[in-house]
Specification:
Layout: H1 5-11, H2 25-33, H3 47-56, E1 64-66, E2 73-75, E3 93-99, H4 104-115, E4 118-121, E5 124-127, E6 130-134, H5 140-153, E7 157-161, H6 165-175, E8 181-185, H7 190-200, E9 204-207, H8 211-223, E10 229-232, H9 238-254, E11 264-268, H10 273-285, E12 290-293, H11 298-311, E13 325-328, E14 337-341, H12 344-357, E15 361-366, H13 373-378, H14 384-393, E16 404-407, H15 415-422, E17 425-428, H16 436-442
Parallel strand pairs: 3-6, 3-12, 6-7, 7-8, 8-9, 9-10, 10-11, 11-12, 14-15, 16-17
Antiparallel strand pairs: 1-2, 4-5, 13-15
Helix pairs in contact: 1-2, 5-6, 6-7, 10-11, 12-16, 14-15
């Protein structure tokens, strides 16, 4: 049973010292009960209270780390069902499978292709996180050799998938230092797999046909000493998988059901790659900590990574670029100067159109708090003084010999005031960024 705020308050010092950053001990207790504070924030809590409150104040979903170093993948420790309630903290890990029964050439080719699954989106390079090695050969030597090749030939974290304890043990000999996720534990082998996880200090998954059996299995593994557990809810029926993912998340967050207080993983297999990625996207959004797919073509992985980027951004914080003067192409003293806001989507849309025009140009990114052109203008975050300051800070006058500034067509109303403030000739650009290539080639003249 979860402790209430009053239950927690009774165990606190009740000094209202504010050392925790809250005005009173009761306020701190209420936030602790809602999982919005950590017990460690209170420096004066007694050891007896720590023993009682330690488990009660733990996050409803445990944080589990797969891998080591800069490439480690952290999943779990989420506090809400819906992003708008707060935000999601730990992005879903995206894994691509590789079978251990591939011949040497095919294995190397697929490994190389997986390593190269990176895409650029709004100025940020995003990529997959893990390689899932599947023991389809049922051969310990082949599985161990595959683990060795991936460990030495990839920067990605590793998932080892086999139901054979002996086969798993052989593979771990070649990659345990990378702290792979051990996948394949079930009711028949969970104690033995837990032994391997404890010995090699690796996280592990558990799987079972029903939620009741899955909860029981998670408890058995915890009693065996494994703290880093991932619940495997893979299946061939999308409706059932989605229901399990949702029920587990709700039970952990709303009911504080500790047996389900772990992140989840799902493997997605479908002969149709479009269907496979569609399902993977669905599970990523609700509420898989890791999704593993067979598809490894960039066009298939791109929507998965894009969906992850979208859902794991802070909804209260716009994505921004650094406000400054950017050079696009081989700029010269007679190159045009445009300005736009520092909202990432706006800036990179403009940059892409300028690049496609093949006309070297400067783009001044004006700081509007990461809002779009019209939003910034309507909120008075984009006006003649703001643009003038941005131009001064970027020392625009030292970059070109002309005094002409192209402004977004949507804020043509600014042109008169801006010309008066700057003393520059103001040129009104197209209303849409897609019109920039034609504008720069036919209208612009230094």
């Amino acid at each position: 049973m979860a402790l209430t705020g009053l239950d927690i308050y009774k165990l606190l010092p009740k000094t209202n010292c504010k050392k925790c950053g809250r005005p009173t001990c009761l306020a701190f207790a209420m936030q602790l009960a809602q999982k919005k504070a950590n017990l460690s924030d209170c420096p004066d809590v007694s050891e007896a209270a720590k023993n009682v409150l330690g488990a009660a104040s733990a996050p409803p979903i445990k944080l589990v780390t797969v891998g080591t170093g800069a490439r480690q993948v952290q999943i779990g420790e989420e506090n809400v069902l819906f992003r708008h309630e707060e935000k999601f903290y730990h992005p879903t890990g995206v894994a691509v499978t590789i079978r251990d029964d591939l011949n040497e050439a095919d294995f190397s080719d697929r490994l190389k292709k997986i390593n190269g699954l990176k895409i650029a989106r709004v100025g940020t390079e995003i990529e997959i996180d893990l390689i899932a090695i599947i023991n389809t050969s049922n051969n310990a030597e082949k599985f161990a050799e595959a683990a060795k090749k991936v460990s030495g030939g990839s920067h990605l974290s590793i998932i080892l998938s086999s139901e054979s304890v002996d086969t798993m043990k052989a593979a771990l000999q070649n990659c345990a230092e990378k702290r792979p996720l051990i996948h394949g534990a079930n009711a028949g082998n969970c104690e033995a797999m837990a032994g391997l996880a404890n010995e090699k200090k690796c996280p592990m998954t558990v799987t079972a046909p029903t939620l009741e059996e899955l909860a029981d299995l998670a408890e058995r593994v915890k009693k065996a000493g494994v703290e880093d557990v991932v619940l495997d809810v893979s299946g061939s029926n999308p409706k059932e998988v989605l229901q399990k993912l949702t029920k587990i998340r709700r039970a952990a967050l709303k009911k504080n059901f500790r047996a389900f207080g772990f992140p989840m993983i799902t493997f997605v297999h479908d002969e149709d790659p479009f269907q496979e990625i569609s399902l993977a996207n669905t599970y990523l959004l609700k509420y898989a900590g890791i999704v593993a797919v067979d598809a490894c073509e960039p066009w298939a992985i791109m929507p998965l990574l894009t969906a992850r980027t979208n859902i794991f951004t802070d909804p209260q914080k716009p994505i921004q670029v650094e406000p400054k003067l950017y050079a696009v192409g081989d700029v010269r003293e007679d190159s045009p100067i445009l300005f736009t806001t520092n909202f990432s989507l706006t800036y990179y849309t403009v940059e892409g159109e300028v690049e496609s025009s093949r006309v070297p140009a400067y783009i001044l990114s004006v700081d509007t708090g990461g809002t779009s052109v019209l939003t910034a203008y309507s909120g008075d975050k984009l006006n003649d003084k703001v643009v003038a300051k941005a131009m001064t800070d970027a020392k625009v006058e030292t970059k070109v010999k002309h005094k002409k500034l192209i402004i977004p067509g949507l804020v043509a109303v600014m042109s008169g005031k801006l010309q008066e403030t700057l003393g520059w000739e103001i040129l009104v650009g197209p209303r849409e960024a897609s019109g920039l290539p034609s504008y720069l080639k036919t209208v612009w003249k230094p």
